[in-house]
């Protein structure tokens, strides 16, 4: 089955963007790591990044009937977007939220997530490893549902 990985705004700049916070890993590195981990776990991983809220909403709608799970780093939309949260709730696809940085260690405006209440869980603070842990947890969760 298929897992959709969604990356929100500014994550296309990973590697160049505030490396002190986000490290030197690029989005391409993360995506290829996830595709490889997907192969090991026996799932197909497809990745999409957008800087546009509406494009991310559309991508979530398009996942309906196609993807079994969603792994999302919504970037700053995490803290602002009721629309993304509503889209995830509407499609009812099990979702895991991830962040490279530990959002609770940073500015107070990053402490609140609109997505967390509709997610299975959240992984924050492990850099690119957050995504890998998130994919593993999502697949574990989905396998638990099968049995
Ligand atoms: C982020 C944390 C957000 O607060 C920030 O706006 C991002 C990246 C992270 O992965 O640590 O763009 O989601």
UniProtKB/TrEMBL annotation:
Keyword tags: Amino-acid biosynthesis, Aromatic amino acid biosynthesis, Lyase
Active site feature: 22 (proton acceptor), 99 (proton donor)
Pathway assignment: Metabolic intermediate biosynthesis; chorismate biosynthesis; chorismate from D-erythrose 4-phosphate and phosphoenolpyruvate: step 3/7
Pfam assignment, any one: DHquinase_II
Catalysed conversion reaction: 3-dehydroquinate = 3-dehydroshikimate + H2O
Site feature (Transition state stabilizer) residues: 17
Enzyme Commission number(s): 4.2.1.10
Gene3D superfamilies: Dehydroquinase, class II
InterPro entries tied to this protein: DHquinase_II, DHquinase_II_CS, DHquinase_II_sf
One Gene Ontology term from the biological process aspect of the record: aromatic amino acid family biosynthetic process
UniProt: substrate binding residues: 73, 79, 86, 100-101, 110
GO molecular function, a single term: 3-dehydroquinate dehydratase activity
Positions in coiled-coil regions: none
Superkingdom of source: Bacteria
PANTHER family: CATABOLIC 3-DEHYDROQUINASE
NCBIfam families: aroQ (TIGR01088), PRK05395.1-1 (NF003804), PRK05395.1-2 (NF003805), PRK05395.1-3 (NF003806), PRK05395.1-4 (NF003807)
Membership in a protein family: Belongs to the type-II 3-dehydroquinase family.
Function (record text): Catalyzes a trans-dehydration via an enolate intermediate.
Self-association state and partner proteins as the record states: Homododecamer.
Name of the protein in its database record: 3-dehydroquinate dehydratase
Organism: Lusitaniella coriacea LEGE 07157
